[in-house]
Amino acid sequence: MWGNRFAAIKAVLEKRPAGVAVVAGLVAALLASGYLSRREAEILKIAEPMPVVIAARDIATGEPIDEETLSVVSVPMRFVNPGAISSMSQARGRVAVVAIAKGSQVTRAVARAAWERMGVASLLPTGMRAFSVALPASSAAGGLVSPGDHADILATFDLGDRSSSQMTTLSLVAGARVLAVEKRVAGSPQEDAKKDSKGIFSGAIGQGQWSRDISVTLAVSPEDAQALAFAQQTGALALAVRPLDESPEEENVTPTTISSIAEGAGALSPIRKPFKEYRGTR
């Protein structure tokens, strides 16, 4: 288009000098046309409607945000607040850090993800406690346990005396939700992105890390928290991941001893290493 216009201008200049005035007018018209086109595009862009999430009613500070408290409307781009949330999926599960008036745009500054605002405490149901256990990777499902899993904690105690060993393993906590593994918190964007990029084995322990303990934080009752604290000091703990849809109430697992494994064998006698006696000479 522009090539044809400038070709016409060149033809006018070649025919007669008087065409200079005409050319100047044409150039001015072309420049004005280009400016107006750019301005029109800018105006249309800032007037383009964008989806924005707003408060469907007044939302109090600390109140969880869900579909019932929100609605999505179209707002011209120039009137969209910085950090405005554009979809229900982005707003779901957030918590109002300040009071949000009805009709106000919901931004990431006023509605933050629960884990960002209050940490692990925001993930706890009422009456539950967050308790961390330190486990070797070999005793924590090979290090494959991830935030959001459900797990059983097994405890092994020695109930024998000085002359014999009576090892007993029992299920101490059943079906506890894993809130965090190390510093990876359930529901955080970093954890979700890691799972999306690396799949279900995103939490696997790397080579050379099997010798160190990993910290697993669980949601447990106050009574279970006490039992775990006692078991960590007096026994050995292990973790077993269980299916998410399996109810621990359906189980009745009896403690395991050497007798139950070896069909009636008694207590284990401690193994004493042989020794040699050396006597000096005069």
Annotation keywords:
alpha+beta, Type Iii Antifreeze Protein Isoform Hplc 12, two-stranded antiparallel ribbon, 7 helices, 11 strands, 28% helix
Can you offer a commentary on this structure?
It is a single chain. The chain has about 280 residues and is an alpha+beta fold. It has 2 domains: about 50-120, Antifreeze-like/N-acetylneuraminic acid synthase C-terminal domain (Type Iii Antifreeze Protein Isoform Hplc 12), CATH 3.90.1210.10; about 125-260, no CATH class. Helix content is about 30%, strand content about 25%. It contains 7 helices and 11 strands. The strands form 3 sheets. Strands 5, 6, 7, 8, 9, 10 and 11 form a 7-stranded antiparallel beta sheet that branches. Strands 1-2 form a two-stranded antiparallel ribbon. A hairpin with an 8-residue loop joins strand 6 and strand 7 (about 165-180). The radius of gyration is 35 Å and the shape is elongated.
